[in-house]
User: Fold these one by one.
Assistant:
Number 1:
Amino acid sequence: MPRYDLHCHSTHSDGLLSPSAVVARAAARGVDVLALTDHDEVGGLPEARDAADEARIALVAGTEISVSWESVTLHVVGLGIDPANAALASGLQALRAGRSQRARRIADALAEAGIRGAYEGARKFATRDGLVARTHFARFLVEAGHAREVKDVFTRFLVRGKPGHVSHAWASLRDAVGWISGAGGQAVLAHPGRYKLSRSGLRRLLAEFGDAGGEAIEVLSPSHTPAQVAEFAGHARVFGLLASGGSDFHGPGESWMDLGGLPPLPAGLAPVWKDW
Ligand code: AMP
Ligand code: MN
Ligand code: MN
Ligand code: MN
């Protein structure tokens, strides 16, 4: 059985390793099929593709699109996309432009809480000009001594009700799924266990996601407890969705799980790769 890891990040979004270093690490850790899924970005894929050819593993062209749905922010992973597709490319471009605006507002919100220089500070950690993520602010806040580590930042800053939180309008669910399927890819609802949704909210989301053309959900994610893995396996069966999984690796020492660290999918699920 090949080993799949269908969600991870590089320096083209908020990961710590270059695309080629991510691919080399995945290969060394026994991954046979890797999807690079940078936030709202596909720029790392050519380098990742060359590295995958060299390491003799399969690379799936991916991205992770930020979505606003009802009052929550969701992530939708696209797998097997054509990164040159015009509608997808312009959609992602608009999201990155929104990120730059949001970064200014996050810095203003932190300044109101007495933390100065956050815009420049976060930008210093961002390796691509157009892509500033909260992760980059988190690294700045750790460096400036406001938190011990990145995970700690997300309990005290940058989240609802805490300093540095701003609301933001991302893509609509329908647009994000449409861009992915229009670019020949499969849309996967990322880490559903991370969203603060009621039972009925989650059912509504899964139904809407399927109606929009969404094909799969991440059953396996380091964000999920064993009970949530079982729960989402059940939802995949009931909603007729394929099952996916990925480490969501961002970098050594900063992630819940290293590349290739996932267990096998629970039995009886149709995997997202069944027709690959
Ligand atoms: P953004 O898309 O800019 O809002 O940033 C979201 C990113 O922040 C996620 O992709 C993660 O990399 C990171 N993040 C969010 N919550 C946490 C957390 N609790 N611990 C560590 N990183 C987090
Ligand atoms: Mn991230
Ligand atoms: Mn995510
Ligand atoms: Mn991710």
Number 2:
Amino acid sequence: MSLRINSFEEYQISYEESTLNPEKFWGDIAATFQWNKKWDTVLDWNFSEPRVKWFDGGKMNITENMLDRHLEKKGDQIAFYWEPNDPNAKQKRITYSTLYHEVCKTANALKALGIKKGDRVCIYMPMVLEAIVSIIACARIGAVHSIVFAGFSSTALADRINDAQAKLVITADGLNRGAKKIHLKQMVDDALKACNSVTDVIVFDCINCNADMLEGRDHDYTTLIQQMPDTCKAEPMDSEDLLFILYTSGSTGKPKGVVHTCGGYMVYTSYSFENVFQYEENDVFWCTADIGWITGHSYIVYGPLLSGATSVVFEGIPTYPDSGRFWAVCEKYNVNQFYTAPTAIRALMGAGLEVVNQYNLESLKVIGSVGEPINEEAWQWYYDHIGKKKCPVVDTWWQTETGGIMLSGLGAHSPMNPTHAGYPLPGIQPVLLDNNGAVIHENDVEGYLCMKFPWPSVLRTTYGDHNRCKNVYFSNYEGYYFTGDGAKRDRNGMYRIIGRVDDVINVSGHRFGTAEIEDAINTNEFAIESAVVGYPHAIKGQGIYAYVVVNDANQTTTEAIKNALMNSVTAGIGKIAKPDKIQIVSGLPKTRSGKIMRRILRKIAEGEKTEFGDTSTLLDPSVVEEIVNHSI
Ligand code: WT7
């Protein structure tokens, strides 16, 4: 058996094998990688605890599989083309062999700073090659990386550093984002005022802005790395040793650190990469995500390198210098597989076909979508005008917690149905549960999307709080992993994701908990109480609607209050979480027991004026009327 599925029939055979004998199925795939010692057991699991171990007893290092293993045949092959934010700036390219040496140098630098296996390293970086090198360098020495998206605020950064008790932060002086420059180092300095676990900071000079450097703590990346030896022995890791932590939002509380481990994550990201995108030797793959999100982890860094692929890494944004940028980059590098988010597609649709038609997109073979449900109009436009009706659209459904793509077509081999993610990958066993938690066996149904069997890259725990992992994912439906999504299964067994059924909103493919935004609003002196809901937004998928009860003793203008509230969200989380609408209200609709009736607020945000279903438990129905009358 090989890793690669070459037809729908082969998919069906693989799928059946993967469910009848998962241990044989995944054991055979794992055997195609390089191990220092073979595993004792393929799988050991119990979803109730939860406990999931894949390839336990096996020894390996993921970076030997991403780099060393390819050097002999692919040393001179390009691993990454780096496309700068400014199209006129100098592009870069890095071969597998150079990447290997850069990773080793950086790994040696980490060691020189005292970083050891198991230590946590926070990476807060722009989309530059040095970020990727840093990630792999951590894995090389067994340090656990925790990447924080560089759009998060210093408060959000501090929360994540503290939760992981990171010893080291790798950052840059600043970053380029379209016409803007953002000073990252300043944010790190602010964050570190509230952190005491960090002993060192490595700063990459990206925008040449002469960031302040603190003697003894801060080190210039280039100077530090320069003197290091360019080989570094890979730390032997147990399959189940931590590879990384990535923070993601849920319905309640602060973002939690999703933990992924070495062996299973390696096997699944590579397997899913090759099959979903049908990547072939000499192809050029481009995933437009940021390394701060799971998509960047699995399909910019790990999956493609494990599979020996050549990819594009893009520093900039889709609309700079104009809305043709994505297509210009596709043309420039002859991109064969292109992977982006519906929000970008919708934004670029608006620029009109004249823009798209200036570019030659003939190299494209597979085009992918990820992060949120893709609406029919965007799907059709993507298929017709980017894929020119000859490229399959792979609508890939997955999550930070799943580590890799779970539901998707496999290149051109699977039947397509617009807005449907489609069938599960081999090894993935989805079920739909009804309101009573019973499995729905028929087709043409709708229910809560759960998984009944583990796959190699399922999250193992939430960092520092295993109970939270259990409560959030494994307790709603005993014996199942609960995704938080609702889904439909059509007559043919294809899945269509409806969206989150919990208090998580998805804004431009970015995940936020409503509670997290409310907490940020509530830190503001004007705010007494708030409730945040999502509502349909033409470009972002969902927009953020905040209802806030304010204390206005000094009769400040509504405009000024709203600005202040917005600033609190920017400071607490980042600009990406700023509400699209803020409505100042005198009270929130609550039940007699004091629970906010979000269902009603959601309806109002959607534009509903009269039909709110059962409101008999409302303490004060007049509140609803007032909110409706002043809704935005
Ligand atoms: C949530 C996970 C994993 C990629 C980036 C997002 C939504 C993701 C799709 C899709 C419909 C999707 C789900 C999921 N989602 N992909 N193809 N179709 N919805 O990762 O931040 O962990 O968010 O994104 O609601 O639960 P994430």
